[in-house]
Amino acid sequence: MNVCVYTLGCRLNQCESEAIADSFAKEGFTIVEEQVPADLYVVNTCTVTSKAEQKARRMIRKFAELAPTLATGCYAQVNEQELKELSDNVIVVPLEKKAHLLKLALHLKACLVSGMDLKGGCLSFSDGKASVFDYDAASFSYHSRAYLKIQDGCDNSCAYCRVHIARGKAVSLQTEQVIERALALEASGFQEIMLTGVNLTMYDHQGEGLGGLLEKLLAKLSSSVRIRLSSMEPDHIDDRLLDVLTDRRMQPHFHIPVQSGSDHILKHVDRHYTISELSVILDRLRKAKNDPFLAADIITGLPGEREEDFAATRQFVIDQQFSFLHVFPFSPRPDTVLYKAKDRVTESLRDERALELRTISEQLHDAYRKRQVGKRTEVILQNRKGGYWYALSGNYLDVRVLSSPAFAREGMLLGGTFGQVIGKQTWMEFIPDATTL
Length: 437
Ligand code: SF4
Fold this sequence. Notes:
Blueprint: E1 2-7, H1 11-26, E2 30-32, E3 40-45, H2 50-64, E4 69-73, H3 74-78, H4 80-84, E5 90-92, H5 104-113, H6 118-123, E6 146-149, E7 151-152, H7 163-167, E8 171-172, H8 175-187, E9 192-196, H9 210-220, E10 226-229, H10 239-244, E11 253-259, H11 263-268, H12 275-289, E12 293-300, H13 307-319, E13 324-329, H14 347-372, E14 376-385, E15 388-393, E16 398-401, E17 413-422, E18 427-432
Parallel strand pairs: 1-2, 1-3, 3-4, 4-5, 6-9, 9-10, 11-12, 12-13, 16-18
Antiparallel strand pairs: 7-8, 14-15, 14-17, 15-16, 17-18
Helix pairs in contact: 8-9
The structure holds iron/sulfur cluster.
């Protein structure tokens, strides 16, 4: 029987979806992509913008016409009723019960044996014991690298955000557990592990932060395993963390939720850093990794964003030469401080600013890729199409591999050099080291 796990939102959701898919695969279900008809759908939703919610509703409606559909994730947590009303074929599993889904496959198998259908099986399922750290996938159906969840929740309360409302207070997986799970992934052959969480830099186990965790983890993992961080909130990036990032096994790719280049706006939306503090961190990251891929999240049209605030953001992203910008036009989220803000920016101005930043992002991304030509790098092989392997470089660029070794396999780490840039916003060539061929 086919099961499709469809994911919206952040890498943490992707990580949790992979664990859910893995639990179905272990019980003999076939995991399929959305294009392949499935007997059961799981939609892991996001509430970060109204657009993400709109897409979740669209996909849930579409899937529910084909088969029973379980809707879970942050949106399901904050608006269970809205999703329930989409179709009789929708079963809502609020975020606080999402981890229960890891045991659903076993239950469904028993139901099928006793003649019950999948929907009946889902409705009759109840499992009272689950933790936000039960997501511990051993295999990954939708990605070539391993994801490891080490943190959940957030103690900040940024004025635009309702993720902390859906996910609750910050909690961290014990260091010993992180190490044990990472070693198990290494033993399964993964050469890259992405650490995920809602707010990774809030990781804290017995007073030790992310820097301390990485030191211990790197001491245990072999020299052939790479670590990537999903994203880093600037306010808890400390010296210890910046020091450990210099380790060559830490991938040169950092994703920073900058949100605005104006101190006035950062303060207004309750972010806990200033632009000059952030500039120091970005300088250290650049020095640690020699031109790493630096991605920034930016929100345009935050309430109170004046022309001079947007100009400061524009100047900041150009000065910092970010490699890519994830641009989000502000969308007011219910239950947040800014939901009913009076100093709103008009939608047309918000969208105009988003468009301008996206154009700048394309130029910055192009310039970044051109700067890599001829530089040494490492890539993780992802898939093979038309006689070529395609891969992801340590600094997060898609590459097409010229002449790969006979023993190449998905998830394998390969050293080599960046070749020419092919096409706009697509991929670069990668020439593997002769010794690996
Ligand atoms: S740091 Fe702010 S934006 Fe990020 S999850 Fe926490 S409250 Fe939300």
